[in-house]
Each structure stands twice: as C-alpha cells, then as structure tokens.
Queue: 2 jobs
Job 1
Amino acid sequence: MNDKNKNSGKIFRQPVTMRMIFCIALFLCLTGCSKYSIPGSTGTGGSNGSAPQKHKISFFAMDTAMSITAYGEDSLFDGGNSPLDEAGELIRSLESGLSVTDENSMIYRINHAAGNEVPIDAETAELLENALILCQKTDGALDITVYPVVRAWGFTTGVYRIPDNEELNELLKNVDYRKIRTSFISDSLRSANSVDDPALESSGSSAETESDSFSKAESGLYSIRVERNMMLDLGAVAKGYAAEKTADLLKKRGISSAVISLGGNIKTIGTRPDGSDWNIAIAAPIIANNDSSTDNSDEQGLSDASASSEPSGYAGILKVSDMSVVTSGGYERYFEEGGKHYCHIIDPATGNPVDNGILSVTVIAEDSLLCDALSTALFVMGPEKAEEFWRSSLKDDQINGFDYLMITGDNRIIITEGITDTFTVDPTYSDHSISILYHLEE
Ligand code: AMP
Ligand code: MG
C-alpha cells in the first residue's frame, strides 16, 4: 500500500494496511450469508488456551437484515446488558431518529418545519455535518436532499413509476444540499469548503471552533433550516454512521474482534480471534429472478415481482482488518419497464436513476460513514469521474485516500492499488477483465 494513504485526517480516518496474500482460500468463506459472508472461525480461535467465544445477533432494521458477530470471553457478554443487545438497541434508536417517515424523528421534524429553523442534538449535527462535507466534496453526486425525486420514482414505496421531465425538473428545483442552512459549520467543514459554497453558509460565529460548537449543541444551540419544499434523507449514509457508532460502543465494552454487518455495510473491528484478516465476500451484482435461493433478502418485502433482487453469488473475497467495506449496487432495489433497468440511486443532476454501466461500487476505508457516502457517490459519478475523485482524494486532508472496487456491465472489475493483494476474484468472475488503478508518482 502506498504510504500516501496513511491517514491523518481530522474526520475520516482510514489507513489501509495491505498484505501480500493474493491467495485462494475463498471457498473457506462462502457459507451462511446473504449479501456478504462473515466467515468466522468455528467458535474458538485463541492459541493461548483462553479461546474467545463467538457471539452473534441478527435482526432487521433500517430496511435490511443486519448481524453483529463478536468474539471474546463469555464474561464480556454476560450480565444483564449484553453489548450485542445494546448495539441492536442503538441501531434501532438511530433508525427511528433518522427515519423520513416516523413523525417523532428528528429528520421528520426538520423536513416538516415549513422552512423554519429546527434545534437539533449534537449527534444529528455531527452526522449532518459529515454528510454535508461529503455532498460538497463529491460535488453533489451525493446529495442528501434528493429524497423527493427518489419518492417520485416510487423507490420509497415499491409502487414504481416513471416521472416525466416536467415533473423531474420541478422536483429538482428543491434538490440542492447547498441550500441547507446550519448553525454548526465547524472548522473542519469550513476548511473543506475551500471554494465559496453557499450551501455551507453558517449562521454561527466564524470564530467558533469544533469543540465549542459541539458543546453548544448540548445546550440546544445546534439548528438547521431546510427550505419549505426540500426534504432531507440520510439513507445513503445512515448505515455507515450506525456502523461507526456501533463499533464505538463495542470497543468501549471491551470487544476487540467483531464484524458489524448492516446490509451492504460491513465494519470490522480488529482481526479474527486468531489474528488473521476477516474474509468479506463481495456480492455479485447479479439481477436474480424472483426465485432467488439466497436467504435474508433485504427486498423480500417489496410487492413488485421485478424488485426481488438478491445477488446470486460473489464476485470475490476481500481480506480486511479494522476496516469498513461498503457496497452500493444497482441490483439492490430497482424496477424494469420496457426492458430498461431503473435503479434506486439517483443522479441529482438529472433526477434520473443512474445508468452509466456501473453495477456496483465497493468502497474500502476505515470510516464506515465515509465508505457509505462514497459508494453511493462513486456510483453516481461513473467510472471516469470516480477515478479522478479517487486520485484527488489522497491530497484531501479529511479523506486521505480510500480504495474501491467497481464492477461494470461490460465485464470489468476495476480495483485500486491498495486492495490488489487482498482481493481474490471468484472463479465465476474469471471472464471479467481486471484493471488496477495506481496512484501516479508526482
Ligand atoms: P446506498 O444504498 O447507500 O447507495 O444509498 C442509496 C439510497 O440513498 C437510496 O435508496 C435513496 O434513498 C438515497 N439516494 C439515492 N440517490 C442518492 C444520491 N445521489 N445522493 C444521496 N442519496 C441518494
Ligand atoms: Mg451509501
């Protein structure tokens, strides 16, 4: 791995440690999974006699199947309040706080404030701030105000339709993250905002430091204002944020070996108990028929037959430790009309579902929120812009580089140099050409 990828970023940490592996072993890992396998050891792993035990919970939240697998001595998990149960509760509480439809959620209150300022708590401010930074950095490929367009296509209900241009143009007038006004623009956001971006305008004092602004939040001084016809939706980053918060909680409870799997968002803590990397299977972005035999479909609840969309296998295995691996895929939610595929990721510039030849993008970095935001954004950008963005990200103090794996409809797998030694392509994908992107020496 390139030294340049060492991370010193203020917000997003992400050193990628690469090993020389490039080996086979994938069939070891393809058991018992939906989108990703979390092939654990068989329950023991310590070589010093005190074998850490495997503990796992599975549940459904944020519209997807989730599981958390942690290894450790039983004493860590005993007692009234197991860390895994606590993590499940945390995710559910984040889900209700971030829901666009739950009338008691913070996001609902912001969206229904008729253009008025709404006080928010420090956590929501932190999430919104990071999301806004990434909207700005990705030049609006990620835009947390795209919800009305997502809804118009029917992706929120499964009752799909194709809005005409007039309707889309009308809706797009209210899609622009730069119109969001906040009272909590911290130094980190200000420095990210090197160009004059009205979106990031703050009503707070310009001398305010990050820690000052967060202590203000505790006294109710954070606020946000969204214009009357605008709506926020953090769906593209919520699972990444939840994975980060869950990892923080588990680490505080003494857990040093775990995999948090929130739908297509994987966050690993440490290594497997025996010190080896986790094997993360990258979903094959295959549009499966309704009779998909894979389990735990995220999409089983959808009524539209064409929306059953579980991938049917794996494109390969990625070995990671202490990293996040997050995939956005056009197969996750979509419909078909007149032989055309319409996916749930929208290009905010046009209001149309992305149709640029990308089937899926997996982003690998330490911070899950970053990965979640970027997997959606790179999907929107398309192969060329994504590559450009990746190249420029190394010079960005806050992102400090990341890796990605992109699968395209013309049988290409594009990977960045940091994962060349840790990604093993599945034999079923051997007909795909693999391109490796290297950072150019200055
Ligand atoms: P993800 O699965 O993380 O890629 O997020 C996709 C979800 O984010 C969709 O289901 C939409 O709710 C929402 N979304 C779609 N397109 C965008 C976009 N360009 N920017 C932000 N959110 C989006
Ligand atoms: Mg995302």
Job 2
Amino acid sequence: MLENIDFPTKIQSIAFLTGAGISAESGVPTFRDAQTGLWAKYRPEELATPGAFQLQPGVVWQWYQWRRELIAKVSPNAGHQAIAQLEQRVPNVHVITQNVDGLHQDAGSTDVVELHGRITRNFCFDCGEDYLDDTSSLEHPPTCKACGGLVRPGVVWFGESLPEAALERAIKLCSEVDLVVVVGTSSIVQPAASLPFYSLRAGIPVVEINPTETPLTESATVSLRGNAAEVLPGLVKSILSEK
Ligand code: BV8
Ligand code: ZN
C-alpha cells in the first residue's frame, strides 16, 4: 500500500504525530465523539479552558475524574503496539502526541513528546505546586497546601500555551526525520496541526491515517483511509520491508 511513496532508501528516523483517534479503539472517546451521559450537554472546548475551571471548578474537575477513571481501565491497542514494536528495528522512533492518556508509554514507546500534558498529573493553578494523582478521588478540586489555591489537572487547556520544550522538540523532529506518520487527529487544533507542514516544507514524506478526510489530507504525501489499529500494523510491516 505504500508503493506509491518514494520513501527515502534507508529509514533511520520516523515521527508519529498522534491524536485522540489512535486511542479510540482502546475505548477512549475522542473530543469529536459526542460526549455521553452527564457530559452530553457540554462541548469539550467549553470545559477544557482556564475560564471554565475558574467559573465552575467542580464541574470541570468532575469531567476530568470521569475521564481519568475511564482511562485507568483501558489499555493500548494494536496501533500503539505497532509503533512501540518498531523501535526494535528502526533506530529513531519518536511519538509526538496530543493525547493525555499515556497509552503510548504503556505500550512501550520510549520517546514520547506530550504536547498537551498528562491527565493523571495535577498542579496548583496559583503557585504551580505539583500534586500526585492521589487527589483523583475527590468531587471538588483540592486546595493547595502551600498557598490555598485550587489544584487543577496537568493538561494544556484551550487558550494556554503548550510546554515550550515539547513544542520546540516536536518542530525540530518534524523538520529532520526521514518519515512522518500522522494518525488519528482531526488536524484542527493548533499549533499541533501545523507540525506536518514543517515536514512537507522540508521535503519529508507525510503519511496520514484517518477514517475520514481532514484539512491535512490534500497536502499529505499519502492519505490512508482506515482505523489506526488496522492500518498501523500493516504500515509498520511495509516500512520494515523497505529497510
Ligand atoms: C495555543 C488537552 C497559544 C486537554 C487539548 C490562533 C490564535 C489564538 C488561538 C488560537 C489560534 N489557533 C487556534 C487557537 C486556539 C486553540 C485551537 O486550536 N482551537 C481550535 C478549536 C481551532 N489552540 C489552543 O488554544 C492551544 N494553545 O494556541 O496557545 C495561545 C495562547 C494564548 C492565547 C491564544 C493562543 C492549546 C490547544 C490544546 C488544547 N488541549 N487537549 C484535555 O484533553 O482535556 S486539545 C484536544 O482536542 C486534543 O488534545 C486534541 O489536540 C484536540 C482534538 O481532539 P479530538 O478531535 O478528539 O481528537 P482529534 O482532533 O485527534 O480527532 C479525532 C480524529 O480521530 C478524527 O479525525 C477522527 O476521524 C479520527 N479517528 C476516529 N477513530 C479513529 C480515528 N483515527 C484513527 N483510528 C481510529 N479508530
Ligand atoms: Zn498553590
């Protein structure tokens, strides 16, 4: 399926840019999927913001508790595992993820750049003090022991800047690897959605895997319609046969 990509002869380094779609087959709902039950009446963009947390800290905190409990019960799928297994044969495999679920690390990937933080982390909104996820059983956000501020989930909300080092590393990797594979993202949220264009400008082939078209589709070198857990194992096999 990859015969029409003029791959670099030897693939020494690959970056996988992943979004919520790669975790869909593990049972983690994407932001695009309609929220279920209690959360059906909220749009994620309305909840995942500093303003929402300041206005209704309990509601936002409980949304994260619901997601944390769900994520605690799921495991990586064949898509996450295919990427992790590639590390045994390709010297440099990098994962740059928008996901906050930690499933790439659980699958064994050793170089994961988390652009939007990690849902199991917490820190004080006011003084930045880190809190372990032992706070995850509470109905309301705990108050910070150091300053009395509110403890918040350790993720990047809309309107907040991404961790500088993570974004810089992601841009650098996307500008210098031999191949980029973009999996399971609607390619809408910035600045993550701009990363594949650094690669295309550098003449690096970009393969997209998504059951539907996205704003990246027409620019991608190849866009494969399909689910991550089905397409990625085949793609990894083709990459290994190229070596
Ligand atoms: C920022 C963590 C600078 C939280 C998330 C210009 C000027 C000013 C502001 C903006 C601007 N451009 C954009 C913005 C604002 C904003 C933005 O991009 N808005 C969008 C809506 C247009 N960006 C930001 O605010 C970012 N910060 O720009 O800082 C700044 C600073 C101050 C003021 C202004 C600017 C911060 C963005 C990070 C937000 N945090 N997550 C949490 O998890 O709670 S984003 C969150 O939504 C995800 O991390 C992901 O990145 C994004 C999208 O989620 P989903 O749609 O679920 O997932 P995805 O997009 O991956 O879509 C699912 C895809 O999977 C679909 O395509 C589907 O077809 C596919 N799929 C489904 N099943 C499968 C599958 N694929 C494969 N296999 C399957 N089985
Ligand atoms: Zn504090």
